[in-house]
Design the sequence.
C-alpha cells in the first residue's frame, strides 16, 4: 500500500510516498481503508524530532529507530475485523484517533480507538475532529462544571481552539470570549463566541474583563499577566504553546506555568497527555451529528501532497485543520 513515511528527522521534506506492507489486524484490531486523515502539530513534533523531548520513549535520539507512518486522526471504512471485535463490522464508516499510521491507504488500530461516523458528517470533517476536539474537552474538564461560568479561549482559530470555543458552550459556559487574529473573527464568532478579541490590536489581559477560566493553546502570555484576566481563584488551563526551545518545546511554557501556579491563589492546570475513552468518542460523534460541534477544514491535500500539507501546518496560521484525502478505487 502507499503510505507517507519518514526514517530520519527533519522538515516536511523527510516525508515521502512509500510502498509498505498492508497491515494485518490483530484479534482486537480493525483494518480500515482510509478516506481522510488530519495533521496536527503532534505529527511534526515527531517527524522533526523537535523538541528533543519528542525523541524520548524509544523514538530514537539521533534518528528514528524505525520507519514511521505519520497521521493520528483518521476516517474511513472498515475492511475487516479481528476475531475479538464485536462492536464494528466490515462496511462501517468510522473515525477516531490512532496515534500513528493514518496517512496511508490502509490502517489497523484497536476498535476502542474508533467510533461510527455520523452519516451527516463527511469523512474530511470527521477526520479533522478527534485530537483537536478531545484535547479541548479534556482540557476544559480540568475545571469541572462550566455551567454558568465565563471562559476565554486564547488561540481560538487553531486546531484545538476552534473546538474549545464550541465545547465550552456545549458544557454550559454562560459567556465565551475568543482571542485570535482579526481576519478570523467572523468565523470564530459563528462558532459560538460571544466576543472576539483581535490579539494584534488589543491585549486581553488589560481590558478589565475577568474570567472563571482561561483556556490557552498558544502560551503567548505569562501567568503574571493572565492573572489580571482571571477572577480571584480562577483557573488557567494550558494545553500547548508556541516555541519553547529545542529541549522541551511547548513543555517549557507549560511546566513554567505549573511551577508559577504553586505561588498564586489561582489554579493552574496543564494537559500534557490524555487517553481517549470509547464513551468520549461516542459523545464527540453525537455532537458532530447534531451540529453542537463542527470541525473547520482550512485546506485539503491529496495523499501524495502530504509534505505540502505539513508545510502549511507549520506556518502556524491554519484556520482549524489541514486534511489529507485520497482517491477511492
Sequence:
Amino acid at each position: 500500500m502507499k503510505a507517507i513515511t519518514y526514517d530520519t528527522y527533519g522538515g516536511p521534506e523527510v516525508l515521502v510516498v512509500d510502498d509498505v506492507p498492508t497491515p494485518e489486524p490483530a484479534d482486537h484490531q480493525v483494518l480500515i481503508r482510509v478516506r481522510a486523515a488530519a495533521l496536527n502539530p503532534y505529527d511534526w513534533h515527531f517527524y522533526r524530532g523537535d523538541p528533543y523531548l519528542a525523541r524520548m520513549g524509544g523514538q530514537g535520539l539521533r534518528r528514528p529507530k524505525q520507519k514511521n507512518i505519520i497521521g493520528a486522526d483518521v476516517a474511513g471504512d472498515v475492511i475487516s475485523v479481528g476475531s475479538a471485535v464485536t462492536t464494528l463490522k466490515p462496511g462501517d464508516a468510522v473515525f477516531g484517533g490512532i496515534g500513528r499510521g493514518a496517512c496511508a491507504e490502509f490502517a489497523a488500530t484497536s476498535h476502542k480507538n474508533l467510533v461510527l461516523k455520523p452519516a451527516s458528517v463527511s469523512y474530511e470533517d470527521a477526520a479533522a475532529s478527534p485530537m483537536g476536539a478531545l484535547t479541548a474537552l479534556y482540557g476544559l474538564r480540568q475545571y469541572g462544571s462550566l455551567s454558568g461560568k465565563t471562559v476565554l479561549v486564547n488561540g481560538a482559530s487553531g486546531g484545538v481552539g476552534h473546538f474549545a470555543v464550541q465545547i465550552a458552550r456545549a458544557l454550559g459556559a454562560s459567556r465565551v470570549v475568543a482571542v485570535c487574529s482579526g481576519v478570523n473573527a467572523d468565523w470564530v464568532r459563528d462558532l459560538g463566541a460571544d466576543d472576539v478579541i483581535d490579539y494584534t490590536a488589543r491585549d486581553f489581559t488589560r481590558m478589565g474583563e475577568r474570567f472563571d477560566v482561561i483556556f490557552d493553546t498558544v502560551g503567548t502570555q505569562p501567568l503574571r499577566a493572565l492573572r489580571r484576566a482571571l477572577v480571584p481563584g480562577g483557573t488557567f488551563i494550558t494545553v500547548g504553546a508556541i516555541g519553547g526551545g529545542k529541549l522541551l518545546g511547548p513543555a517549557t511554557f507549560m511546566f513554567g506555568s505549573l511551577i508559577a501556579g504553586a505561588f498564586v491563589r489561582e489554579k493552574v492546570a496543564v494537559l500534557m497527555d490524555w487517553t481517549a475513552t470509547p464513551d468520549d468518542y461516542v459523545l464527540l460523534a453525537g455532537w458532530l451529528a447534531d451540529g453542537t460541534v463542527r470541525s473547520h477544514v482550512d485546506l485539503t491535500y491529496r495523499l501524495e501532497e502530504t509534505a505540502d500539507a505539513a508545510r502549511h501546518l507549520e506556518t502556524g496560521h491554519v484556520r482549524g485543520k489541514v486534511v489529507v484525502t485520497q482517491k477511492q478505487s
The longest strand covers residues 29-39. The longest helix spans residues 278-290. The mean pLDDT is 91. Residues 81 and 160 are 31 Å apart (CA to CA).
